[in-house]
Specification:
The chain is of the alpha+beta class and 241 residues long. It is built from eight helices and five strands. It folds into two domains: 2-87; 94-232, Nuclear Transport Factor 2, Chain: A, CATH 3.10.450. It has a five-stranded antiparallel β-sheet. Strand 3 and strand 4 (212-220) form a beta hairpin.
Length: 241
């Protein structure tokens, strides 16, 4: 019955914490019973002098049997708690989700280091529509990317963004790319430039939205610490924005 109760609390949506609290209370009750029985056995039952030693042994034996049963129940409750802690699926860590969103961005657009042919792989990142951009970037950064692209299309010239934002280069190239978690909701991307052997680092700042984690900015330590949002927020040429 104890295992059914604890399993119900965990699986029915009542909450893992509630299940552990319930098991903790059960363990405390059994321990109190052990203490009570132990004290009773040690202090002796109220046996009259006329009672035989066999009677004393029978009563004491029952007490020890109850004590053993209570101890087994305590151990069973502890084992049950450990089982559910070990078997319950752990919630994904925020850092894992942050790495996943940055990783999905590179998975979708890593082809840019291999080819600049739109016919073969589709549009590069900066030419994507808003719906695609919002899969990876928060609404503000996606909007800034769209405005810069519209400016470039209307003017036929480069506006604020003159490089590939996820490779920090006008000529994307990378080897030995790694993605790892960093403090303060940051994800660090590092790779080596094949032509120069230079180590390149990008720092992605993540923000939690209703849709999940999204990229709120990209910082470029190799560009005097400039960030993508700062660059895109500059006044657009001949647009008045």
């Amino acid at each position: 019955m104890d295992s059914v109760r604890s399993r119900y609390l965990i699986q029915s949506g009542s909450g893992f914490k509630e299940a552990i609290s319930w098991l903790s209370n059960r363990i405390e009750m059994e321990i109190q019973l052990v203490i009570s029985l132990d004290s009773t056995v040690k202090s002796g039952y109220p046996i009259s002098p006329s009672e035989t030693s066999g009677r004393v042994l029978t009563i004491a034996g029952k007490g020890l049997s109850m004590l053993s049963t209570a101890l087994n129940r305590v151990l069973g409750a502890i084992a049950l708690a450990v089982f559910f802690v070990a078997s319950s699926p752990a919630a994904p860590r925020a850092s894992d989700e942050q790495i996943a969103i940055v990783g999905s961005l590179y998975k979708a657009f890593a082809w840019q280091v291999l080819s600049n042919s739109n016919n073969t792989f589709g549009k590069p990142l900066t030419q994507q529509e808003g719906a695609t951009l919002r899969r990876y970037f928060d609404k503000e950064l996606a909007s800034l990317l769209l405005k810069d692209r519209q400016c470039a299309t209307a003017s036929g010239e480069i506006c604020n963004l003159d490089f590939d934002p996820i490779f920090a280069s006008q000529d994307p190239a990378a080897i030995d790319l790694s993605i790892r978690s960093a403090p303060n909701d940051m994800v660090a991307v590092e790779f080596t430039s094949p032509s120069s052997g230079e180590k390149v680092r990008l720092e992605y700042r993540l923000a939690k939205s209703q849709e999940g984690w999204r990229i709120g900015d990209i910082r470029y330590p190799g560009m005097s610490g400039a960030s993508l949002k700062q660059l895109l927020a500059r006044k657009l040429p001949r647009s008045g924005n």
